[in-house]
Design brief:
The complex is a heterotrimer. Chain A is an alpha/beta fold. Chain A is built from 14 helices and twelve strands. In chain A, strands 7-8-9-4-10-11-12 form a seven-stranded mixed beta sheet, with helices on both faces. Chain A has a four-stranded antiparallel beta sheet with strand order 3-2-5-6, covered by helices on one side. In chain A, α6 (154-167) packs across α8 and α8 runs parallel beside α9 (216-233). Chain A is globular. Chain B folds into two domains: 2-100, no CATH class; 103-323, Orthogonal Bundle (MetI-like fold). In chain B, α8 packs across α10 (234-262) and α12 (277-286) packs antiparallel against α13 (290-318). Chain B has helices spanning 2-28, 34-39, 45-54, 61-74, 102-137, 142-156, 159-169, 185-219, 222-229, 234-262, 266-271, 277-286, 290-318, and strands spanning 76-80, 83-87, 94-95, 100-101. The relative contact order of chain B is 0.13. Chain C is α/β, with parallel strands linked by helices. Chain C has a domain at 261-353. Helices cover 30% and strands 21% of the residues of chain C. Chain C is built from eleven helices and 13 strands. Chain C has helices at residues 75-82, 105-114, 132-142, 151-161, 178-190, 208-225, 236-242, 260-265, 270-278, 321-325, 344-352, and strands at 25-36, 47-59, 64-68, 90-95, 98-99, 115-118, 196-200, 228-232, 245-250, 253-259, 292-294, 331-334, 337-339. In chain C, strands 6-7-8-3-9-10-13-12 form an eight-stranded mixed beta sheet, with helices on both faces. Chain C has a four-stranded antiparallel beta sheet with strand order 2-1-4-5. Chain C starts with 24 loop residues before the first strand and ends with a helix. The chains are: A alpha/beta, B mainly alpha, C alpha/beta. At the A-C interface, β1, α8, α9, α10 and α11 of A face α6, α7, α9, β11 and α10 of C. β1 of chain A pairs antiparallel with β11 (292-294) of chain C, so a sheet runs across the interface. Bound molecules: adenosine-5'-triphosphate, adenosine-5'-diphosphate, iron/sulfur cluster (2 copies) and magnesium ion (2 copies). One magnesium ion binds next to α1 of chain C. Chain C: InterPro entries: AAA+_ATPase, ABC_transp_ATP-bind, ABC_transporter-like_ATP-bd, ABC_transporter-like_CS, Oligopep_ABC_C, P-loop_NTPase. Chain C: Belongs to the ABC transporter superfamily. Chain C: One of its GO terms (molecular function) is ATP binding. Chain C: Pfam families: ABC_tran, oligo_HPY.
C-alpha cells in the first residue's frame, strides 16, 4: 500500500547535515549576512514606554541556523519584525543597527524597506491559518509575492509558483494552486507559507514559531522541510521558538532572550549541554523530557517581568536562585554585560557569576537528566 | 450551488405570499370601514355598497385573496357604478381615488425611487468607504478624530435638515425633478443630483464609521502582516488585501439599507418633489387608498426578500469559505 | 511517587473477584457523534462527525491516565463525556459501578461534585466580572459544602493550597498572570473535594517555566488528596512526566494503551511509534540514545469520513490489505498493554530491538 517511510537515519539531526552547513558557512567565513548591533525597539503606550527589545546584538552568517528562544513577551517577535522593517515607524522607536547583506535597515525609508522585504529577507509566521488571506487562492498569493520583486508575466510567475509548491512537498501542485487556504490542511498551509517566503530566493529566512500551531507529526515534517530547503538555498535561517526540543533538532547557534535582552549566546550543543546562565539552566530544568528518567521538575520561581517596569540590575534577579552567590548586591544594582566568561570565546552570557561553569558542573549538572 | 439558489428562491416566494396574505388580513378584515372612508362624509348607502363590492369587501377573505392572486396572474375586471374597468395582469388592484390601475401607478413610481436610491448609494458607498479607509489608516490622529466627529455630527442632524441644507445652499445644482433615464440620461441625472447628494451625504456618515471599524479590524489581521512582509506596496496592502476582507460585513449592512430605502425614500422624494414610491404610499395611507397600499406592501416585501437573497449570494461570491461544493 | 501509582499494586482486571475490583471510572465503547448542521436553511446536507467512536477505558482510584493524540482526535470530547458535560450518543460511562450515561441533570448532581474539569485556557474559563473568592466559593455554595460564614475561610485555605496569596480573594482574574489563573481554576476544582479531575491541557497555554510550576502543583495535590486524574495533553513529555498510564488516541479511537514505561519504551502501534519519534528530543543533545526517525506523510484525516478498517491506514507505512477491510481490535501485547493494530506484536519486537 503506502511506501515505507521509516527512515533508517540514526537519530539526531544527521551529522552530515551539520557538516554540509559548515561548508556553506565557510564560504562567507567571518562575514555575517545578518548583523544586529545594540538594537532597541520600544513602543510608547498609554501606560508608558514598553521597551520590548533592549541592546540586542547578534550575527548570523549564510548557511547557518540561529534559534532565538525565550518566554512569551521576551521580544523575540518584535526583534525579528524589526529586521523585516515591519514596525510602523509612527508608533515605534528604534535605535541601533541592523544590517542585512551589508545594508543598514534602521532608518531606511519605507519605500526602500519595501523593495527589500521579501526579496533579501522573507518571513513565515506562527499560525498558517490566519497568516494566509482567506479570500485569495494560494497560487494568487504566491504569484503576488514573486511579482512584487520580479517583472515577469503572470504565466511565468504561475509556473514559478507551481514549482515552489512542488518543492515544499505539496502533491499535485498545478491543481492545488487554485485552491483557497481553507481547502488546505494545517501542515499544507505552512508549506504554502514557506513556498511563498522562498519564492524570491531570499538569503535570510525568518521563521517565527512556524510549528507552534502544528501537531508533532506535522511539526517534524515542517522542520525537516526547512532544513532541507536551507541546504538547497544556502540561506541563513533565524528560527524563533520557545521549544528547546525544537532548538536541539535544528539550530547551529542559540540566542536566549529574557525581558527584551539577549542573556546567553553560543553553539546549540554547548548551550543545551552546559548552560552558563541561570535562566537558560532554569528553562532546561523546567522541561519534562520524553527520554531519560522522569524526575521532579525544577521550575523557575515567579513570573516573567513587566517590560514597563523591568527589575533593576540583572532583570532576572527576582527569580534567580544564584543571585546570592554574587558578592554584594551586584545582581540587583548592575546590569551585567553580555560577554564571554569561559575559554570558549564563541559563548557569551549576561551574568555576574564568576564561574558559572564551575557552579553548574558541581551543583547543577547532576540534576539534568 | 444551483440547488441552493433554487431552494432560496422557493423560500423567498413563500415569504412574499405569507406577507401578502397577512397584510390582506390586516387591511381588509380590520374592524374599520374602508369603504366608508373612501366614500367620504356624504355617503349614500348605495354608493357605500357599490364601493364595498368593487373592493370585494362583501366576500369572504379567502375569496378576496383568491381574487387578488388571480388578478396578479391573469388580470381582472372591475365594475363600479356602471363603469367597467379592465385591469391587465399583473393586476394589483384599481385605485378609485386616482382612477388608475395600481400596477401602472407603481410602475411609474418605482423607477423614480430606484434612480434616487441607487444613485445615492453610489455616492455614499464611495465617499463613506474611502473616508473610512483614510480614517482607519490614520487611526488616532487628528484627521481620524475629525472624520469620526463629523460623521457623528451628520448622523445627529435629522435627515430632513440635511435635505433642507442641501436644497438651500447647493443652489448651483440643477433644478430637481424626474425625467426618465431612457429619454435623456443627462436631464435624468441633472434632476436627481440634489437628491443623490442629500441621500449620499447623510448615509456616507454611517458608512464612514462602518468602513473604519471594519478596516481597523482587518488591518490588524495576521494576513495583512503577511502581505506587508512580501514587499508589496502599502496601497496594494490596503486596497487589495485589506478592503477585500473589510468589504464583506459592509455588504451585508448595505443590502439591508438598500432594501429599506427602495421601499420608499420618503423624505428625499417629498423634499425634492420626486414622484417616487414613498410619496405614492404616503398619499395612499392618508387617503386610505387600500389597493395602492397593498401594492406598496407587496413591492416592499418582494424588494426585501430579493435583497436578502442577493446579499446571501453576494456573500458566497465574496467569501470563498462559504462557497459550496 | 505515591504508593498508589506503582504498577505492581494496580488491581487486577475488573472481572476478577476481590475487594477493590471495580474501577473508579469506566468507559465502555463510548461514542459521541455530532451532527454538524449542513448548508442551506434546513441543513439538508447535515453530516456526522465521529468525534469519539468506541472508546473503552478504565481509571482506578488515585491513578493518572494520560490521553494524548493530535488535534481533533477526540481528547476534549472524551473529557467532556466523562464529566457528563455532554451526553454520549452510544456506549456507557460507569462511575463506581453506577451507570451515569444518561442521568438527568438533577440525578447527576452528586456525581458532578466528584468529577471535576480543569480547562485549557486560563483566560476564558474564569468569569472576568467575579472575584476570585466568588469563583472558588461558587461550587461550595452549590453543593452546600461549608456552613454559612465559613466560606471565606475555606476559600483562603484553597488559595493557599494552590500557592496563591490567601488575601487575594478579593481580586479579579485579570489581575493575575496566566499561571496564576490556572491555579485559580485548580482551586475551583479542588473546592468540592473531587475523586476524579479531568484536566484538559491544563498547561498547554503556559510558558515552560510556569508550566513546570503548575505541573508540580498538580503532582503534589494528587499525592496529598489521592485524586485520580484524566490528564489530556498533546505534549508527550508532559504526559510522560505526570501519568501512570497513557492512552494514545487517533481519530476518535484508542490506538494504544499501556503503562507509561512500556508505552514510551516499547510502543506497539505504528502511530505511537511515529508520534514518539516525531517529538523533538532534548535528551539527545545530552547523550541519550537517538530514536528511530519515522516521518509520517500528510495530516490527520477529518473525523467526518474516517478511513475504513484501521483509521490510521492512510498514513501507516505498515498497512496491508487487511487493514482496509478489518478494523483491528485492541490486542493484548503485554501486561496491561494493548494496541489496535493487526501487527502489534511483531512491531513491538521491532521497536524493542
Ligand atoms: N459540538 C461539536 N459539534 C460538532 N463537532 C464537534 C463538536 N465538538 C467537537 N467536535 C469535533 O470533534 C472532533 C474532536 O474534537 P475534540 O475537541 O475532542 O478534539 P481534541 O482531541 O481535544 O483536539 P485538540 O488537541 O485540538 O484540543 C473534532 O473534529 C471537532 O471538530
Ligand atoms: N505594537 C506594540 N505596542 C506595544 N507593545 C508591544 C507592541 N508589540 C509588542 N509589544 C510588546 O513587546 C513585548 C515583546 O513582544 P514579542 O516580541 O511579540 O514577544 P515574543 O518573545 O513572545 O515574540 C511584549 O510585552 C509585547 O506586549
Ligand atoms: S546576574 Fe545575578 S541575578 Fe542575574 S542571572 Fe546572574 S546570578 Fe542571577
Ligand atoms: S492495522 Fe494496519 S494500518 Fe492500522 S496501524 Fe496496524 S498496520 Fe497500520
Ligand atoms: Mg512571538
Ligand atoms: Mg482539546
Amino acid at each position: 500500500m503506502t511506501e515505507p517511510q521509516l527512515l533508517p537515519t540514526p537519530g539526531r539531526r544527521p551529522e552530515t547535515v551539520s557538516r554540509a552547513r559548515r561548508v556553506a558557512g565557510d564560504r562567507t567565513e567571518g562575514q555575517s549576512y545578518l548583523e544586529v548591533k545594540d538594537l532597541t525597539v520600544s513602543f510608547p503606550t498609554a501606560d508608558g514606554l514598553v521597551g520590548a527589545v533592549q541592546g540586542l546584538s547578534y550575527s548570523l552568517p549564510l548557511g547557518r541556523t540561529l534559534a532565538v528562544v525565550g518566554e512569551s513577551g521576551s521580544g523575540k517577535s518584535v526583534s525579528s519584525m524589526a529586521i523585516m522593517g515591519l514596525h510602523d515607524p509612527r508608533s515605534t522607536r528604534m535605535t541601533g543597527s541592523i544590517t542585512v547583506g551589508g545594508e543598514e535597515i534602521v532608518g531606511m525609508t519605507p519605500t526602500e524597506l519595501r523593495k527589500r522585504r521579501g526579496a533579501n529577507a522573507a518571513m513565515i509566521f506562527q499560525d498558517p491559518q490566519s497568516s494566509l488571506h482567506p479570500y485569495f487562492t494560494v497560487g494568487d498569493q504566491i504569484i503576488e509575492a514573486y511579482r512584487a520583486h520580479h517583472r515577469v508575466s503572470k504565466r511565468v510567475a504561475r509556473d514559478r509558483a507551481v514549482d515552489m509548491l512542488g518543492r515544499v512537498g505539496i502533491p499535485n501542485p498545478r491543481r492545488r494552486l487554485d485552491d483557497y487556504p481553507h481547502q488546505f490542511s494545517g501542515g499544507m498551509r505552512q508549506r504554502a507559507m514557506i513556498a511563498m517566503a522562498l519564492v524570491n530566493d531570499p538569503k535570510l529566512l525568518i521563521a517565527d514559531e512556524p510549528t507552534t500551531a502544528l501537531d508533532v507529526t506535522v511539526q517534524a515534517q515542517i522542520l525537516d522541510l526547512i532544513m532541507e530547503l536551507q541546504q538547497d538555498f544556502g540561506s541563513a535561517v533565524l528560527f524563533i521558538t520557545h521549544d528547546l526540543g525544537v532548538v536541539a533538532e535544528i539550530a547551529d547557534d542559540v540566542l536566549v532572550m529574557y525581558g527584551g535582552r539577549g542573556v546567553e549566546y553560543g553553539r546549540a550543543e554547548s548551550i543545551l549541554g552546559q548552560p552558563l546562565h541561570p535562566y537558560t539552566w532554569g528553562l532546561l530544568e523546567s522541561i519534562p523530557a520524553v527520554s531519560g528518567e522522569p524526575a521532579r521538575l525544577h521550575p523557575i520561581p515567579g513570573t516573567p517581568p513587566s517590560l514597563l517596569a523591568l527589575p533593576s540590575g540583572c532583570s532576572f534577579h527576582p527569580r534567580c536562585e544564584f543571585a546570592g552567590r554574587v558578592p554584594g548586591a551586584a545582581c540587583s544594582v548592575d546590569l551585567p554585560d553580555l560577554v564571554s566568561r569561559t575559554e570558549d570565546t564563541t559563548r557569551t552570557s549576561r551574568c555576574h557569576l564568576a564561574d558559572p561553569a564551575g557552579i553548574f558542573a558541581t551543583d547543577i549538572l547532576p540534576r539534568l537528566p | 450551488m444551483l440547488i441552493y439558489i433554487l431552494r432560496r428562491i422557493a423560500s423567498a416566494v413563500s415569504v412574499v405570499i405569507v406577507t401578502l396574505v397577512a397584510s390582506f388580513g390586516l387591511f381588509f378584515v380590520a374592524p374599520t370601514d374602508p369603504a366608508g372612508t373612501i366614500c367620504g362624509q356624504r355617503c349614500t348607502p348605495e354608493r357605500h355598497a357599490d364601493i364595498s363590492a368593487s373592493l370585494n369587501l362583501d366576500q369572504p377573505v379567502a375569496q378576496q385573496v383568491g381574487e387578488y392572486l388571480k388578478g396578479l396572474a391573469v388580470g381582472r375586471t372591475y365594475h363600479s357604478g356602471g363603469l367597467t374597468i379592465e385591469c391587465d395582469a399583473p393586476c394589483l388592484g384599481y385605485s378609485y381615488t386616482l382612477g388608475q390601475p395600481v400596477t401602472k401607478l407603481i410602475g411609474q413610481a418605482l423607477p423614480v425611487t430606484v434612480s434616487i436610491v441607487l444613485g445615492g448609494a453610489v455616492v455614499y458607498l464611495i465617499a463613506g468607504i474611502l473616508a473610512g479607509i483614510i480614517a482607519a489608516r490614520r487611526r488616532g490622529t487628528y484627521l481620524d478624530r475629525l472624520m469620526v466627529g463629523t460623521s457623528l455630527g451628520i448622523n445627529a442632524v435629522p435627515y430632513f435638515v440635511v435635505a433642507l441644507l442641501v436644497s438651500l445652499y447647493a443652489t448651483f445644482l440643477p433644478h430637481a425633478g424626474y425625467h426618465p433615464l431612457l429619454e435623456n440620461p443627462f436631464t435624468w441625472a441633472a434632476g436627481l443630483l440634489a437628491a443623490w447628494l442629500t441621500l449620499g451625504l447623510a448615509n456616507s456618515a454611517s458608512y464612514t464609521r462602518y468602513a473604519r471599524a471594519s478596516m481597523i479590524e482587518t488591518l490588524g489581521e495576521d494576513y495583512i502582516r503577511t502581505a506587508r512582509a512580501k514587499g508589496i506596496s502599502e496601497r496594494r496592502v490596503v486596497y487589495r488585501h485589506g478592503l477585500r476582507a473589510a468589504i464583506t460585513p459592509i455588504a451585508t449592512i448595505f443590502g439591508l439599507d438598500l432594501a429599506f430605502q427602495l421601499t420608499g425614500a420618503i423624505f428625499t422624494e417629498a423634499m425634492f418633489g420626486l414622484p417616487g414610491l414613498g410619496v405614492l404610499t404616503l398619499r395612499a395611507f392618508n387617503q386610505y387608498d387600500l389597493p395602492v397600499l397593498m401594492g406598496g406592501v407587496l413591492v416592499g416585501s418582494v424588494v426585501l426578500v430579493v435583497m436578502n437573497l442577493l446579499v446571501d449570494i453576494l456573500y458566497t461570491i465574496l467569501d470563498p469559505r462559504v462557497r459550496l461544493g | 511517587m505515591s504508593t498508589t501509582t506503582d504498577t505492581a499494586i494496580r488491581p487486577a482486571p475488573a472481572d476478577q473477584p476481590g475487594g477493590d475490583g471495580t474501577p473508579l471510572l469506566e468507559l465502555r465503547d463510548l461514542q459521541m457523534h455530532f451532527t454538524a448542521r449542513g448548508d442551506g436553511w434546513f441543513g439538508r446536507n447535515a453530516h456526522r462527525i465521529r468525534a469519539v467512536d468506541g472508546v473503552s477505558l478504565q481509571l482506578r482510584a488515585g491513578e493518572t491516565l494520560g490521553l494524548v493524540g493530535e488535534s481533533g482526535c477526540g481528547k476534549t470530547t472524551t473529557g467532556r463525556l466523562i464529566t457528563r458535560l455532554l451526553e454520549p450518543t452510544g456506549g456507557q460511562v460507569l462511575y463506581q459501578g453506577t451507570d451515569i450515561t444518561h442521568l438527568k441533570e438533577k440525578d447527576l448532581r452528586p456525581y458532578r461534585r466528584e468529577l471535576q474539569l480543569i480547562f485549557q485556557d486560563p483566560y476564558s474559563s474564569l468569569n472576568p466580572r467575579h472575584t476570585v473568592g466568588t469563583i472558588i466559593g461558587a461550587p461550595l455554595r452549590v453543593h452546600n459544602l461549608v456552613p454559612k460564614g465559613k466560606e471565606l475561610d475555606r476559600v483562603r485555605e484553597l488559595l493557599e493550597v494552590v500557592g496563591l496569596n490567601p488575601e487575594h480573594y478579593n481580586r479579579y482574574p485579570h489581575e493575575f498572570s496566566g499561571g496564576q489563573r490556572q491555579r485559580i481554576g485548580i482551586a475551583r476544582a479542588l473546592a468540592v473535594q473531587p475523586k476524579v479531575i479531568v484536566a484538559d491541557e491544563p498547561v498547554s497555554a503556559l510558558d515552560v517555566s510556569i508550566q513546570a510550576q503548575v505541573m508540580n502543583l498538580l503532582e503534589d495535590l494528587r499525592k496529598e488528596f489521592n485524586i485520580a486524574f484524566v490528564f489530556i495533553a498533546h505534549d508527550l513529555g508532559v504526559v510522560r512526566h505526570f501519568c501512570d498510564r497513557v492512552a494514545v488516541m487517533y481519530l476518535g479511537r484508542v490506538a494504544e494503551i499501556a503503562d507509561r514505561d512500556p508505552l514510551y519504551g516499547t510502543p506497539a502501534h505504528p502511530y505511537t511509534q511515529a508520534l514518539l519519534s516525531a517529538v523533538p528530543d532534548l535528551g539527545v543533545v545530552r547523550g541519550a540514545a537517538p530514536k528511530p526517525r519515522i516521518r509520517l506523510a500528510g495530516d490527520v484525516p477529518g473525523p467526518m469520513d474516517p478511513p475504513t478498517g484501521c483509521r490510521f491506514r492512510s498514513r501507516c507505512w505498515k498497512a496491508e490489505e487487511v487493514c482496509a477491510t478489518t478494523t483491528p481490535p485492541l490486542l493484548q501485547v503485554g501486561a496491561g498493554h494493548a494496541a489496535a493494530c493487526h501487527f502489534a506484536g511483531s512491531l513491538q519486537e521491532e521497536a524493542a530491538a
